[in-house]
Design brief:
By secondary structure, the protein is α+β, with helices and mostly antiparallel strands. It is built from 5 helices and 3 strands; from the N terminus they run αααββααβ. Strand 1 and strand 2 form a beta hairpin.
């Protein structure tokens, strides 16, 4: 771009990075893409997924799934971060 001109996409990205909307948008992206990240079976038995201050909270009532998710915390964090395109998830909590 010339001199002080910025593309609309870059301007929107900069605005979102500085606004309070970014954490909520990241949470919505995780919720919308949850099935693609972990697969249909796990997504079917997951009651909710929330993202708070870098903590991904996964809620399920299925005990064997809780155990499997506990073993896969690092992998889940990596998959979600890859999907988001940046390191947002620092911790995974299973409830």
């Amino acid at each position: 771009m010339r001199n002080n001109m910025v593309s609309l996409g870059d301007a929107l990205k900069e605005y979102l990075n500085k606004s309070r909307l970014k954490p909520r948008l990241m949470e919505v992206r995780v919720q919308e893409n949850w099935e693609q990240v972990v697969g249909k079976t796990i997504a079917r038995y997951t009651e909710s997924v929330h993202l708070y201050d870098g903590k991904l909270v996964i809620v399920t009532t299925v005990a064997p799934l809780k155990q499997e998710l506990n073993y896969s915390k690092d992998r889940i964090a990596g998959l979600v971060n890859d999907m988001l395109g940046e390191k947002v998830v620092t911790e995974v909590i299973i409830r």
